[in-house]
Design brief:
With 274 residues, this protein is of the alpha+beta class. The protein folds into two domains: 4-24 and 135-261, no CATH class; 33-124, no CATH class. The protein is 36% helix and 9% strand. The chain has seven helices and eight strands, in the order αβββββαβααααβαβ. Strands 4-1-6 form a three-stranded antiparallel beta sheet, with no helix packed on it. A three-stranded antiparallel beta sheet has the order 3-2-5, with helices on one face. Strand 2 and strand 3 form a beta hairpin. Helix 4 (146-159) crosses helix 6 and helix 6 (189-213) crosses helix 7. The termini are far apart. Residues 41-62 and 64-79 have low confidence and may be disordered.
């Protein structure tokens, strides 16, 4: 039975780790697809794809066409580019509709491969045969038990170290067995039950936080500001991960926002729904 005094800290710890665990699940799904699948390229997935890497990734690129990765515009040789722990935001340059077919061919020829599996030939990589590529990554995250969730978080934090500003909070997390590279084997049954309860309460807590954040409307729009500049606001960071995954502030546009209409999410925006 969970110790009630530990349930709230465990839920807060679940929120803290949510972006990194979600990124791990997303990366696993993205790199488990051997070829183009139009059924899985619908918006918003094809608009932004983010991967916080547990391990480096290599991106074979078949052309010298400029494209954007994170905040850098690159014009690579037809070879490959290695990424580690950065925003992956690929956008190919295009000359207009007449150029779309060529861009589509480049998109189809671009692969995302774990560096540990890279041989020099992208065709050598075969995704895990048993990988689940149909369940949404967030659903996979929400299905994890506390032990599974925090074991993955501890492992991910080794190669994706927390920000130095997180240090005071990490000191409190350590009491729950949550730290880079830590194992949960020495926790008591009550402590493990508290972690399970934190994982159970996490998704509902996220929905409540979103409702609170969107309760104040700006002319009929819910506007989330300060995206990707969260500091130690771990709850806000988790909410954006769940409901606006990929939302990011570009350094050249610090005032960018991601608004959402209040009552028009199921219909096209019109004069009566602005």
């Amino acid at each position: 039975m969970a110790n009630e005094s530990m349930e709230k800290p465990a839920t807060e710890a679940w929120l803290y780790g949510y972006p990194l665990v979600t990124a791990a699940m997303t990366k696993g799904t993205m790199t488990a697809v051997p070829a183009r699948d139009d059924a899985r390229r619908k918006a918003p997935v094809n608009h932004r794809r983010r991967a916080a890497q547990e391990r480096p990734l290599r991106r074979p690129v078949p052309d010298r066409r400029p494209f954007l990765v994170g905040t850098r515009t690159l014009r690579p040789d037809p070879a490959e580019i290695a990424h580690r722990g950065e925003l992956v935001l690929p956008r190919y340059a295009t000359g207009g509709p007449s150029d779309f077919a060529a861009v589509n061919r480049l998109q189809d020829g671009t692969r995302l491969i774990p560096l540990s599996e890279w041989t020099g030939n992208p065709d050598d990589y075969s995704p895990p045969a048993d990988a689940d590529t149909t369940t949404a990554p967030v659903d996979k995250v929400h299905a994890l038990s506390g032990r599974e969730y925090f074991t993955l978080l501890n492992r991910m934090m080794v190669d994706n170290p927390p920000d130095p500003a997180d240090a005071p909070y990490l000191g409190r997390l350590a009491k729950l067995g949550i730290a880079p590279g830590a194992v949960l084997d020495d926790l008591s049954s009550d402590e493990l039950a508290a972690l399970d309860e934190g994982a159970r309460q996490g998704p509902e807590t996220l929905r409540g936080l979103l409702a609170e954040a969107e309760s104040a409307k700006d002319g009929g729009w819910a506007v989330h500001r300060g995206l990707s500049d969260y500091g130690t606001d771990f709850a806000k960071r988790a909410v954006i991960t769940r409901f606006g995954y990929g939302s990011a502030r570009h350094p050249q546009s610090p005032d960018a926002v991601n608004p959402r209409p209040d009552d028009c999410s199921a219909s096209l925006l019109r004069g009566a729904c602005q």
